[in-house]
Design brief:
The complex is a heterodimer. Chain A contains 14 helices and 1 strand, in the order H-H-H-H-E-H-H-H-H-H-H-H-H-H-H. Chain A is an all-alpha fold. Chain A has 2 domains: 45 residues, no CATH class; 212 residues, MetI-like fold. By secondary structure, chain B is mainly alpha-helical. Helices cover 66% and strands 4% of the residues of chain B. In chain B, strand 4 and strand 5 form a beta hairpin. Chain B starts with 5 loop residues before the first helix and ends in an 8-residue tail after the last helix. The chains are: A mainly alpha, B mainly alpha. The interface between A and B is large, with 120 and 129 residues.
Chain lengths: 281, 316
Amino acid sequence: MAIKGGIDARPNPVGTIIGAAAIALFFSFPYLLMFLSSLKTREEITRIPPDYFPVTPQFSNYLTVWSSSVAPGSSLLATIVISLGATLLVLLIATPAAYYVARFRFPGRMVFLFLVLITQMLQPTVLAVGLYQQFSGWRGYLVWVALILINGAFNLSFAVWIMQSFFASIPKEIDEAALIDGLGRLQTMFRVSLPLVWPGIVTAIVFVFVNTWNEFAAAFILVQDNALQPLTVSMPRFLGMYIRDWQYLFTVAVVAIVPVIILFSLIEKRLIGGLTAGAVK
Amino acid sequence: MTRPSAVTALRSDSARPRKRPRRTGALTALPWVTPTLLLIAGVVIYPTILMFWTAFRKYNSYGIEQGSAGLNNFIGPAGAFTFPTVPWASVWTNTVVWVVVVVLLTLLLSLGLAQFLNKDFPGRKALRLVIILPWASSVVMTTTVFNYGLQTDVGLFNRLLVDTGILQTAYGFTKDPTSAFWVAVFVAIYVSLPFTTYTILAGLQSVPRDVLEAAHVDGAGAAQRYWQIVLPLLRPAIAAATLINIINVFNSLPILKILNETPGFNTGHTTTTLIFAYKSTLGPGVASALSIFNFFFCLVIIAVYLGIVKPTKEVQ
């Protein structure tokens, strides 16, 4: 279909390969450094000047880090619990809202959608002082509940938005057939529509989970107790006054980053639709 | 019954004239949307109200409320919106430089990157996955690697810069407030690139080929086609990416916080990072006043976003 001397720039294989390699290197070098550094001994990583590569890769760091002074296990648990909690909360409350907004027009629907969009663009940092006043009294494990609520609230809109666009794409007739067959509205949503919109649900789940997993500001202001801090907040504690365990810090960072990279790559194609709320196709 | 894949679902959205959703009353809608409304009311609107209240109250150095402050939390020695006890001139400058430089450079670099990724070459899909890395990873952890690499003594980036002859001796990038700020700018651009590139790439893929081919037949060169066809068609994608980036960059806390090792106020604070000094130096009153300024700034950007990008036009 291309016209002679078409609109595509002359393919220059060498240039393309060099360009692609440079881009790949640019977007991965901090993470390569992170991984390499996680395999060094403390003596190696604090050596001056530093060596580029570990002499013998210390894969044992990935075992010993859990019993180190910072004991990151509890932080990993905190991160997992808060992320799962927020994801579950969002799913539970965003799904019916998304379904209804996609299926029905009702007074206040646009107001509702605007509210959702505004929440999507606001961030916990803007409300940090208010959130601190509201939740600073939530001690012990309650602080995890507070973080689940906060992360849930600020990620809710993405989920509502992406799921409603999927619900809207299913022909209404399918729903109506189910209703005529005697299913209730809620049952129709669960048993007929939900199985059809699974890509949207997976996208919402991954996005909320990853965002909560990486959240910093709210956790930073609310969690005082070391044992309850999620990973993003507790990691600097590896860098003490006298002992700087960079290698352990990076071990934990690798452990924390690998799962979210896998999750994010699953929904790579669908990220833009939800984030820019259908503005870009 | 076929399962709509995400892509076909989104396409069919715009291709087929959408049947209007059925009408119902507000009361029937309540059980479906109330949980969402409650969460937004409880965790977004309520703290906002608290913040507004606090901004007009006076607090002593122990954080105990001392009655009404009127507008005192907003008015510093140099007039309205200079905020007491805040080095307002440097904070304002930093904030403007931070947002403008990061957002603009991110956009320019992303336009180039997206153009490259839009080409068809083997390994393109793998490359797009590599670009996701800074997006999926926690900003705290990405910033920490840069902080480590740029340490004067143990930092590998410093060693690399010395080994390649770019630097004579290792430089304490994060020890000096000014260079720490510019390192933070670099890291902020770095973590903003994936989202921006993806958005522009999505825009590029919607540019119709036949239009470009027609322009080519009419004698338009590559540069002309880019400026006169591609770029105008990219406008919605650029608008969406830029406005979302403004909000994200403006609200960014960890990058500046981690890279700025010099304590004190006069070191690369923006109006966002400064808020987090409320427990130590600012006090709840001034911190809230500052937050309210940030809040309104975000609202303005959101309003522009809703006005220009019109994300709701599809669901009317």
